[in-house]
Design a protein that fits this description.
It is a single chain. The protein is built from 6 helices and 15 strands. Helix 1 packs parallel to helix 4, helix 1 crosses helix 6 and helix 2 crosses helix 6. Strands 3, 4, 5, 8, 9, 10, 11, 12 and 13 form a 9-stranded mixed beta sheet that branches. It has a 6-stranded mixed beta sheet with strand order 6-2-1-7-15-14, with helices on one face. It has one domain: D-Amino Acid Oxidase, Chain A, domain 2. The longest helix is centred in the C-terminal third of the chain and has 23 residues. It is elongated. The chain is an alpha/beta fold and 363 residues long.
Length: 363
C-alpha cells in the first residue's frame, strides 16, 4: 500500500527530506511550498546561503551528529555528481581569542578550536603554523571542504525528487493540517513533514514563538580569491562576520557577512556592505589586484537572507495537529546545508515510525 506524504517547504531541509523519502517506491511524495528554487525572497533563506561545510556543532551534541552524518553525502555528491554544483575547496579558519567572549564568537567556537572534532571528518586537516598567522590571530587551521552553488544544487535536488516520482506544487496554507488535504493523489496524506523554517513562527497549528531570524547580508562578486576563509569575529561589531567562499560552476564568490538577531530588514545596508568588502580584502588581498581596494571588486549583487534560528535548537520531532500526523524538521539557523542530510535522516526515521504504526493499526 502506498504511503502518501506531504513535505511542506522547498528549502534545503524540505528538498533533502523529500529526496530521501522519495527513494522508497512505496512513498508518494508531494512537495508543497510558497517559494521554489529560482525564487529570491527574504523569507526563503536557502538561495541566499553561501553555502559550505564549516561545522559548528558542540562535541557530543545532536547537532554534531547531524553535521558528521551529512559530510559523507556531500563528499559523495562532489565526487560523483558535478552537475549538482558542489565542489571541493581549500579552507582556512582563523581564530582570535578575544572574540570568544562575544555572542557570535560563542556560536562559532567549535569551528575555530585548535583541535576540533571535525578534524577527522573533513579532508587534509592541519594546523596553520604560527609564523604564517596574521597579527592578532591566535590559531588557525587548514583543510579541504566543499562549497555549494545553491542556484544549481537546489534544482538538482528537485530533479532527483522528480526522477523518483515526487510532485511539486506551489501552495500557501494558514494551518498546517490543511496541507494533508493537498496531496497530489487527492487522498489525505498519512504524514505532513514541516520544513517551513522561519514560517513556522506564523503557521497555524505550529505558531512556534521560539523562532527568530538572524539577518545575514552578503556581497556576491566575480573575483575568485582561491581558498575559502573565515574568522572567529571582526572588530566592526559582535554581530558582523567575515567569510569568503567561491561557489562551484561559476556561482561567484560570496563575501560576508552579518548575524543580526531579530533583524527582519530585507534591504541591504550599504554601510555594512562596505565594511564587509573592506575586511574581506584585508584578510585576503588576493581578492583584488595589488593596490586596489573595494573598487577592485566586480559586484554581481548584494543580498540579504534570514537564517531561521530557534531558541533551544532545531526541532525534529513527531507531533499531531487536528488529527494529522506531523514530523517537524525546522529551525536550523545558519547550518541548514551542512547538517541537511543528518537532520533529514532523523526526520525520515520519525516518518517511518508513523507509517509503521499505521500499517500495524490496519492489520
Amino acid at each position: 500500500m502506498a504511503n502518501n506524504i506531504v513535505v511542506l517547504g522547498a528549502g534545503v531541509s524540505g528538498l533533502t527530506t523529500a529526496y530521501l523519502l522519495s527513494q522508497d517506491p512505496a512513498n508518494k511524495i508531494t512537495v508543497l511550498a510558497k517559494h521554489m528554487p529560482g525564487d529570491y525572497d527574504i523569507e526563503y533563506a536557502s538561495p541566499w546561503a553561501g553555502a559550505n561545510y564549516m561545522p559548528v556543532g558542540k562535541e557530543g551534541s545532536a547537532h554534531q551528529k547531524w553535521e558528521r552524518d551529512t559530510w559523507p553525502v556531500l563528499k559523495e555528491i562532489a565526487d560523483k555528481y558535478p552537475e549538482a554544483g558542489i565542489h571541493f575547496r581549500g579552507s582556512f579558519i582563523y581564530n582570535r581569542k578575544k572574540d570568544q567572549g562575544s555572542e557570535t564568537g560563542r556560536s562559532f567556537s567549535e569551528l575555530v578550536q585548535p583541535n576540533p572534532w571535525y578534524k577527522d571528518v573533513v579532508l587534509d586537516f592541519k594546523s596553520v603554523p604560527s609564523d604564517q598567522l596574521l597579527p592578532g590571530i591566535n590559531n588557525g587551521q587548514e583543510f579541504t571542504s566543499v562549497c555549494i552553488n545553491t542556484a544549481i544544487y537546489l534544482p538538482w535536488l528537485v530533479g532527483q525528487c522528480l526522477k523518483n516520482g515526487a510532485v511539486f506544487k506551489r501552495a500557501v496554507f494558514k494551518h498546517i493540517a490543511d496541507a494533508a488535504n493537498a496531496h497530489h493523489t487527492g487522498q489525505k496524506a498519512d504524514v505532513v513533514v514541516n520544513c517551513t523554517g522561519l514560517s513556522s513562527k506564523t503557521l497555524g497549528g505550529v505558531l512556534d514563538d521560539k523562532m527568530y531570524p538572524a539577518r545575514g547580508q552578503i556581497v556576491v562578486v566575480r573575483n575568485d580569491p582561491g581558498p575559502m576563509m573565515s574568522t572567529s569575529g571582526t572588530d566592526d561589531g559582535e554581530d558582523e562576520l567575515l567569510y569568503i567562499m567561491t561557489r562551484a560552476a561559476g556561482g561567484g564568490t560570496i563575501l560576508g557577512g552579518s548575524y543580526q538577531k531579530n533583524n527582519w530588514d530585507a534591504i541591504p545596508d550599504m554601510n555594512l556592505a562596505n565594511r564587509i568588502m573592506k575586511r574581506c580584502i584585508e584578510v585576503c588581498p588576493n581578492l583584488v589586484k595589488k593596490g586596489q581596494g573595494i573598487e577592485g571588486l566586480d559586484i554581481v549583487r548584494h543580498g540579504v537572507g534570514l537564517r531561521p534560528l530557534r531558541e533551544g535548537g532545531t526541532r525534529i520531532e513527531k507531533d499531531k495537529v487536528g488529527g494529522v500526523a506531523i514530523v517537524h524538521n525546522y529551525g536550523h539557523g545558519g547550518f541548514g546545508y551542512q547538517a541537511s542530510f543528518g537532520c533529514s535522516y532523523s526526520a525520515v526515521s520519525l516518518v517511518n515510525e508513523i507509517l509503521q504504526n499505521k500499517s500495524r493499526a490496519k492489520l
